[in-house]
Amino acid sequence: MVKLTNENRLLQEIGNLAANGKIRDSGALTTKTNGSKLTAQDAKTKIQKKLIPTIRQRINAVKFYLNLMANMNYAPYLEDLSSLPKEQKPLINFWDSALHVQIDLLNRDTFPLIVFIVLNGFFSNLVSSEDCVAKIINIVYDLLQDDRQGYRIRRELENKIPNGILTAHLRTFHAIGEDGKPDKTGSTFNIAKKIRNQLVHDDIAEVMFFPTLSLLGLSDRDLYFNNVFFPAYTPPKHNNTGMITFCKNVYNETVSFVDKCYRLIYTDLQQSGVLPVDSKI
């Protein structure tokens, strides 16, 4: 289970503000259509009971799928089908949670399907966790709930937080181009979002490079993402486009990002003494 060191501090601070009557209505919208604002109780409940638990659940799911990748047995798919044993064995052995996936190793379509399921689960939950962080920011800093564009959130925050610490952190994580819009190739997380979008709309063969056993090498258990997701200056595929390597990196960066956001939000709430954060701090 993932450990977010600043989660409890943030939850406790929101609880303290509620106990002292320091939570007001938030400008964040309750829905995308009716335009009504969140009441003080709704704002507290949405952060404490929904968004933070959902983020924890999503990140735990990301870790689960990452462990599946590390335990996948690629060799049967890559070997000559005629040499496969008649007795089928699971492609995935995940003993810690007693998960066993029995598949037909004689079917070439099965392996890409398993890869798709694992990657889709990994990236969908990864991006969703960041979406939930954005919703918390919307409520805490009195922004619009349905403002999905990260760079617009940052622009709004710049007017509310003169020191811009959270804004700078968001900008670093997402990477913003000179035009003020997200640079899709400028950060690990932006690349992850691009891969997620491709998984939603295209065949897995458009996302992954499936080498033969002779190209993969007996000691190399990693597969590779299509190089189109990475900047032109990215080193060769045996560097950071490897599936397991890249996914480990983006997982670690996302966990660090979420935890640091919690810390920065907690600090602003302490300084402001009220939720939503006073724009004058």
Characteristic terms for this protein:
281 residues; mainly alpha; two-stranded antiparallel ribbon; two-stranded antiparallel sheet; 9 helices; 6 strands; 6% strand
Q: Gist?
A:
The protein is mostly helical and 281 residues long.
The helix fraction, in percent, is: 40-55%
Distance between the termini: 35 Å
How many β-strand runs?
6
User: Taking all residues together, what is the mean pLDDT?
Assistant: 80
SS element count, helices: 9
- What percent strand? 5-15%
Major sheet description:
2 strands, antiparallel
The coarse silhouette is elongated
* CA-based gyration radius: 22 Å
H-E string: HEEHHEEHHHHEHEH
Given helix and strand content, the structural type is: mainly alpha
Q: Which strand order does the major sheet show?
A: 1-2
Low-confidence stretches: none
